[in-house]
């Protein structure tokens, strides 16, 4: 019987870590732009300011927290989505309907967003530290030090500050990335023009990255503001009101750097994931024969 390779449950986390190492400077600049109350400079100006003030390595500030976030948030959502998807579709070897992919991705992303909130908050704080005056910086040594200090100094509840935003954003970005990637890949392969190769993976992941950026940007702005705040927001609703004062485009502040960061991150994640699946995936039968119906009594 022919066999095929499927992803192991932890491949999504590993692939996301590889992508994060490549796109972290873009993520850092996105955080800096989103936390401006007034638009004072663009992406290039912000990058030059960071390098001028703290050196080029400052562009990788908070990398440990970013990797910690991927190993919690991304590993959880990929594990839920791919494990359940393969289990449901395994008996028939047929792809799920798109609406089922969307629902499954939303559940996986919401769960992953909640699990990854502590690392996500520390990631935002470490990235935002670079542009603060020295006396106001938190100066976390690494991700685990940041989580421990937040727990000790601010309490366990503070670790999940912005969890509702992070979970909601996780659901939206996972819908945009995982379900749209699967659907785009399915449509590309159905044309018969391309095989299951790196070009198909690139096209599908590029489409998924664009969908994810459009869906999650408003919540991403709110999440970033809540996590980087020093008490100026009384809650999600107050943060929403303050952001709304900037106008409708305030919710899409940093959209270009977000797209510049999220689209390459999505592309790299799925390229790494497909290579991990191809070379190290679990071998399973390509199709499972249907059992004959039981004989009539």
Condensed summary:
By secondary structure, this protein is mostly helical.
Share of residues in strands: under 5%
Strand sequence of the main sheet, in spatial order?
1-2
- SSE run: EHHHHHHHHHHE
| The CATH architecture | Alpha/alpha barrel
Look at the structure and give the CATH class: Mainly Alpha
Number of strands: 2
Structure description:
This protein is an all-alpha fold and 297 residues long. The chain contains 10 helices and 2 strands, in the order βααααααααααβ. The chain has a two-stranded antiparallel sheet. The longest helix is centred in the C-terminal third of the chain and has 31 residues, at 198-228.
Please describe the structure with a list of short key phrases separated by commas or semicolons.
297 residues, mainly alpha, Mitochondrial carrier fold, two-stranded antiparallel sheet, 10 helices
Strand and helix map with partners:
Blueprint: E1 3-6, H1 11-34, H2 43-54, H3 63-90, H4 98-115, H5 117-129, H6 143-154, H7 163-190, H8 198-228, H9 236-244, H10 255-280, E2 282-285
Antiparallel strand pairs: 1-2
Helix pairs in contact: 1-3, 1-10, 3-4, 3-5, 4-7, 5-6, 7-8, 8-10
């Amino acid at each position: 019987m022919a066999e095929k390779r499927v992803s192991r449950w932890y491949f999504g986390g590993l692939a996301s870590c590889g992508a994060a190492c490549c796109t972290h400077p873009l993520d850092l600049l996105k955080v800096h732009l989103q936390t401006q109350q007034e638009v004072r400079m663009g992406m290039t100006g912000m990058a030059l300011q960071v390098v001028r003030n703290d050196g080029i390595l400052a562009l990788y500030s908070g990398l440990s927290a970013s990797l910690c976030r991927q190993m919690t948030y991304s590993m959880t959502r990929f594990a839920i989505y791919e494990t359940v998807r393969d289990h449901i579709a395994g008996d028939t070897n047929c792809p799920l309907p798109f609406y089922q992919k969307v629902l499954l991705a939303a559940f996986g992303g919401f769960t992953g967003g909640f699990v990854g909130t502590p690392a996500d908050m520390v990631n935002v704080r470490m990235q935002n530290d670079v542009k603060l005056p020295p006396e106001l910086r938190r100066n976390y040594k690494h991700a685990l030090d940041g989580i421990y200090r937040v727990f000790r100094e601010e309490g366990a509840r503070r670790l999940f500050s912005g969890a509702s935003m992070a979970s909601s954003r996780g659901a939206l970005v996972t819908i945009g990335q995982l379900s749209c990637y699967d659907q785009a890949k399915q449509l590309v392969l159905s044309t018969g023009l391309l095989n299951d190769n790196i070009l198909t993976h690139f096209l599908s992941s590029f489409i998924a990255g664009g969908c994810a950026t459009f869906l999650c940007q408003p919540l991403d702005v709110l999440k970033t503001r809540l996590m980087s705040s020093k008490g100026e927001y009384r809650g999600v609703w107050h943060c929403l009101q303050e952001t709304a004062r900037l106008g409708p485009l305030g919710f899409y502040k940093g959209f270009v750097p977000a797209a510049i960061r999220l689209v390459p991150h999505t592309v790299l994640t799925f390229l790494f994931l497909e290579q991990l699946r191809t070379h190290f995936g679990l071998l399973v039968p390509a199709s499972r024969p249907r059992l004959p119906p039981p004989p009539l009594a």
